[in-house]
Amino acid sequence: MPAPYKLVILRHGRSEWNEKNLFTGWVDVPLNEQGTTEAIQAGKLLKESGWLPDLLYTSLLRRAIVTANLALDKADRLWIPVKRSWRLNERHYGGLQGLNKAESAQKHGEKQVKIWRRSYDTQPPETSEEDRKTEDFDGRYRNAGIEVPKTECLKDVLERALPYWKSDIVPDLKKGKVVLIAAHGNSLRALMKYMEDIADEDITEVEIPTGVPIIYELDEEFKGMGIQLR
Q1: What is the pLDDT of residue 2?
Q2: Structural domains of the chain, with CATH
């Protein structure tokens, strides 16, 4: 099918740890009440705009999965096929996971924490051995032979997400399917960087809102600019 290829990306609704201002990463936290409302509203926007997905891609984390289910239910598309992958998981924040962002800035300095949070290629400190053992025993990763990262920067996220983009998502787009990717702030920022050719130094300032569908009409190179549905 010729271009444009239609893609929707959707960051999960606001979570309980977003509310508490904690670094979340691969910790599997639920949506809060606001996040549930955002997800339902996202589905309403998809239905009203006519951007109805034929296929869903999502991560292995519940906040993305539940957001997608709520949105698709509202859009009357809960029946579409689903593909899930750890490659769409949120960035692993290493030793910062579970810590308060403001308290971390007080401890390490606001400048350093901003570098850890927003820099394209600087990793936070690695996760502790104790926390790593807990993650390694998580069935969704252990049973699939997935090695949980010790820490990641945005560059690392792009390097794990891009092969999946090329091997799975692009072929479905080529079939003319409207693809929905329900994922996370950083995994979606990584894909956005690739699709929109955003420079390393500029991606640091890009923020994706929770629960707002962003639509793309991609060209034959699978590049394009996103538009938020409001």
Answers
A1: 66
A2: 5-20+29-90+152-228 (3.40.50.1240)
16 has binding-site annotation: yes
12 included as an active-site residue: yes
- Tell me, yes or no, if the pTM score tops 0.85: yes
pLDDT digits (tens, 9 = 90+) for 150-175: 999 999 999 999 999 999 999 999 99
- 24 annotated binding-site participant: yes
Is residue 14 marked as binding? yes
CA distances from 62 to 31, 69, 70 (A): 8, 10, 12
The one catalytic residue among 19, 38, 48, 90: 90
90 is catalytic: yes
